[in-house]
Amino acid sequence: MNEAIRRLEPIAVWDKFADLNAVPRPSKKEERVIQFMLEFGKSLGLEAFKDSVGNVIIRKPATLGMEDRKMLTLQSHLDMVHQKNNDTQFNFDTQGIEMFIDGDWVKAKGTTLGADNGMGVATIMALLESTEIIHPPLEALFTIDEETGMTGAMGLEGGLLKGTILLNLDTEEDDELDIGCAGGIDITATGTYSVEKTVPGGIGYHIVVKGLSGGHSGMEIHKGLGNANKIMNRLLQKGATNYGLRIAKIDGGGLRNAIPRESMAEIVVENAKKEAFEKDFEDLAGTLKKERNALDPYLTIVLTEIDMTDSIMDLTMQQSLLHALDVSHNGVYKMSADMADLVETSNNIARVEVIDGHIKIACLTRSSVEAGKWELANKLKKTFEAGGLMVDFSGDYPGWKPNPHSDILKVLKEKYESLFGKKPRVVACHAGLECGILGRNYPEMDMISFGPTILGAHSPDERVQISSVQKFWRFVLETLKDSPKIKP
Question: Any idea which residues carry the catalytic annotation?
Answer without folding.
Answer: 79, 146
